[in-house]
Amino acid sequence: MKLDKYTVGKRYGKALFELAEEGSETDAVYQSLIILDGVFDEIPDLGNILTDVRLTGDEKEAIMNRLLQNFDGLVKNFLKVVFDYNRIDDVPFMIEEFNRRYDIKNKIAEGTITTAVAITPEKKAEIEAKVAEVFGYQKALLKPLIDESILGGVVVEANHRVLDGSLASQLAGLRAALGK
Q: Which segments of the protein form a coiled coil according to its record (predicted)?
């Protein structure tokens, strides 16, 4: 039975996190995975290329060696194993699982902040501090999004929790209370 990408990602990401913890390298591995994630963002088909049956083993090896030049230690060895098991196309899911575990360990809430108009960096930092306090985390990292349909206010989604302070939801609540 072939495992889906999500399951593979969870297993490999968990294994990498546990190895990093064992060697007290979680912060260093996390930083390396940020770089690796950036590579996969820049070249979205990299995983497919490295698992493509139309390429020879030597061609794949040359591409992989080029990628490995950017990493060392645990991350480099991890990538070699993932490549050897032909799972390189699942790396983004592995990174996601590692990051999830890293955030839990370090009490970091990641998510989005949606507003009707752009907010200043100062206001974003203020909201992040408040969200961290409300959710009981050390820190909140929120990606700003703009959605004019919320009319005003703020909607924060972090770690599967939502704080909806949008004008649109307040108006909907008012309509419901008035029976309209």
A: none
Domain 5-103 fold is Peroxidase; domain 1 (1.10.520)
Which candidate, 176, 158, 156, 175, places its Cα nearest to that of 166? 156
Per-residue pLDDT of the chain (180 residues; tens, 9 = 90+): 577 888 999 999 999 999 999 999 999 999 999 999 999 999 999 988 888 889 898 999 999 999 999 999 999 999 999 999 999 999 999 999 999 999 989 999 888 999 989 999 999 999 999 989 988 899 999 999 999 988 888 899 987 888 888 888 888 888 888 876
